[in-house]
Every structure is written in structure tokens, then in C-alpha cells.
Amino acid sequence: MQVVTTPKEMQALALTWRRDGLKIGLVPTMGWFHAGHLALMRKARTVTDRVVVSLFVNPIQFGPTEDLDNYPHDLERDRRLAEAEGVAVLYAPDVALMYPEGCTTRIHVDGLTAGLCGASRPGHFDGVTTVVAKLFNLTLPHSAVFGEKDFQQLAVIRQMVRDLNFPIEIIGHPIVREQSGLAMSSRNTYLKEDEMDAAHSLSKAITHAKKMVKQAERPSPEQIKEAVSGLIVSHPQCIIDYVEIVDRTSLQPCERISSESMLVLAVNINQRIRLLDNSALL
Ligand code: AMP
Questions:
Q1: Vertex 48, ends 42 and 50: CA angle to 5°?
Q2: What's the CA-to-centroid distance between 171 and ligand 1, angstroms?
């Protein structure tokens, strides 16, 4: 496996692969790999000939009070894990090379970015779409794999790809969970022992919501949201950012539960750790 650190070298390599008729897969990440990232890499390998994993903690998607500076980082550890998955290139550029002075273009997807994480993290999705578009141009992938854990992000990327005619297949990968049910996340590493119960309340609340919709008389979205919120805030360390039930495509609130309904959650643990989770309800 090669570690590539410059955009120029990355694009040149991708062009050579393209000329040789090889299919390229991209898995964008911010590093500190866990089994969720590795599953995305494996998926990319099954559909393409050369997998590029980008490892870039993208400063323009973080707000001024967020965890950019202490985001977990260990290039050597991640290099070993990616290599074991048969990844061809780990692309890990410096910030100054991705955003040289004078780089002022931003990509903004309207509509889908307005609510949920977009409401509490202004500018976040502009940072995400801008870096993903740059990564597409640098790695020239035929397919790119994203996790469903970041459900809104996946919807926004699909919209950008449609709107800007990127000839790229976007593949969503189901959430990979710990045995306990906790959705894997690089940010789980910040969790202290006495915060674990609070962290587990997200997946437990989802399980409870799925049980509720199986009842003979199906509850309304409001009733489910109330029950889910109640379970989460019974842990005083949890501050809910949102608990919503939305249509999986439009991300608009659902009036009744259907196979298109997604329960989406964002919770801050002790004001330090932002955790996301989601699930279909039927
Ligand atoms: P991140 O490094 O957190 O930016 O995540 C990189 C990619 O991995 C994104 O597409 C995430 O949605 C995906 N991802 C992160 N955690 C999980 C998980 N537990 N299961 C599936 N995909 C995940």
C-alpha cells in the first residue's frame, strides 16, 4: 500500500489507473479507523480494482468550538489497518495542500442541509461537500462508499452528485455497531467509563422505538419521539440535539410511520462528545 500526501501525486496516480482501465473506489474518512471504516474499505474492494482511502481531518467542516484540534490521530496505526484490508493508497494530505492560500470556492447543497445536523452545525455541510468534491477530482473514483451512520451526509452527497453530474456511483453502507449496540465512531474514544451508559441510551432508545411500531395500534411519530427522548434524557449526561423521524429521501418530518421513515438522533454527552445514530423503523 502506498501513502500519498500530495494532491498532484494522487491525481496523477488515479489518471494512470484510469488509462489502464482499472475501476477506482474511494472511501473518505477522517482517520482513527474502527470496524465501521474497515467495512467500508472491504465493500469498496468488492466493487473496484483499486481502493483509495482518504484520511483528512477537514478543518472547514468543523465549527470554531468543535473538536478539530483534539480529533484522534495515529497515521501509523491507520496505515497498518488499511493495508490489511487490501487498500491500494492511503491519501493523507496536509491541510495547506488541500486548501492553499487563495482557495475560496465552496460547494453548497440547499434544502437537505437546512435541518438536523445542518441546523446545529452551520457551515458543516458546505465543508463536507467541498472536500468530497475535491477528493472526487483528485481520486477520480468510479464508486465511493459512505456510511449510513452519517445519514444526512449521505443524502447530501447523493444530491451533490446528481446536481453536479459526477459520474460516480455512491454506495451507502449500513451502520457497524459494537456488540452492545453502540454505533462505532472515532469519537467513542473520548467516552469515559461513567459515560458509557449514557452513550448506549441512543441504540437502546432505537430498539425501544422499533418495538413500539410493532404494537397493534401503531404510535404516531410524536409518541415515538417522546418515548425516545424520555429514555435518553433519563441520563443526565445526555443533552439532545435532535430526535426526529424523517423521510429517508427528503429528510422532512414524517406525519405517520412508514417503510420510508427514519429515526435520527444526535446527542451531546457532557457537552463534549457528539454522538449520532439512526435506524429505519419498519
Ligand atoms: P469519519 O471518519 O467519521 O468521517 O467517517 C468516515 C466514513 O465512515 C463516513 O462515510 C462515515 O459515515 C463512515 N462511518 C463512520 N462510522 C461508521 C459506522 N459505525 N458504520 C458504518 N460507517 C461508518
A1: 85
A2: 13
Task: Using the mean position of ligand 1's atoms as its centre, give its distance from the Cα of residue 167 in Å.
Answer: 22
Instruction: Give the closest residue (by CA) to ligand 1 atom 6.
Output: 29
Quick: pLDDT tens for 147-173.
Answer: 999 999 999 999 999 999 999 999 999
The CATH homologous superfamily for domain 2-173 is: HUPs (3.40.50.620)
Query: How far does the centroid of ligand 1 lie from the alpha carbon of residue 7, in Å?
Result: 23
CATH superfamily of the 186-280 domain: Pantoate-beta-alanine ligase, C-terminal domain (3.30.1300.10)
Is residue 235 annotated as a catalytic residue, yes or no?
no
C-alpha–C-alpha distance, residues 184 and 242, integer Å? 19
Using alpha carbons, select from 78, 68, 77 the residue that is nearest to residue 29: 78
Exposure pattern of 93-102 as b/e (b: 16+ CB <10 Å)? Answer: beeeebbeee
Are the beta carbons of 170 and 146 closer than 8 angstroms?
A: yes
Protein residues whose CB sits closer than 6 Å to any atom of ligand 1 = 29-30, 36-37, 40, 146-147, 149-150, 173, 175-176, 183-186
* AA identity, residue 152: Q
pTM: 0.98
pLDDT in tens, 175-222: 999 999 999 999 999 999 999 999 999 999 999 999 999 998 999 999
- Residue located nearest, by CA, to atom 7 of ligand 1: 29
Which residue, by CA, sits nearest to atom 17 of ligand 1?
36
Q: Report the DSSP beta bridge partners of residue 3.
A: 90
For the chain, the domains span 2-173, 186-280
